[in-house]
Amino acid sequence: MNASEASNAVSVANVPPEIRDQLSNWLGQQEMSNPAVNHGSVDGHVILAKASDEDGIVTLESLTMVLSQMNIDIDPEIFAEQASTEGELLQDGPNRWKRA
Questions:
Q1: Distance of alpha carbon 52 from its chain centroid, rounded?
Q2: How many domains would you assign to the chain?
Q3: Cα(52)–Cα(30) distance, rounded to whole angstroms?
Q4: What is the pTM of this model?
Q5: Measured at the alpha carbon of residue 41, what is the angle toward residues 50 and 87, in degrees to the nearest 5?
Q6: Judgement on whether residues 48 and 94 belong to the same structural domain of the protein
Q7: Is residue 9 situated within a structural domain?
Q8: What does the DSSP assignment read for 23-89?
Q9: What are 51-93's pLDDT values in tens digits?
């Protein structure tokens, strides 16, 4: 069992029995429709290093491009928001951050 399968098993086990089958089917369909998507661990430092320019500026566009190139299915805005919460990025303007 890989990490994705384990995560799905825990998700299914933690829902009410009356919707367990529906969730299980939905998770299976998601896996089949996105087989090439990287569901492993994500190294945020590597992503930020690739997305930042020489001044340490990260834009929504650069994040989108890097996540796409790395075949990582994460919303770039959510990634930036999380990185900001963790102190890795500081808001520098609309859709623009500076690495901390």
A1: 17
A2: 2
A3: 31
A4: 0.58
A5: 60
A6: yes
A7: yes
A8: HHHHHHHHHHH-TTSB-S---HHHHHHHHB-TTSEEEHHHHHHHHHHTTB---HHHHHHHHHHTTSE
A9: 999 999 999 999 999 999 988 888 999 999 999 988 999 999 9
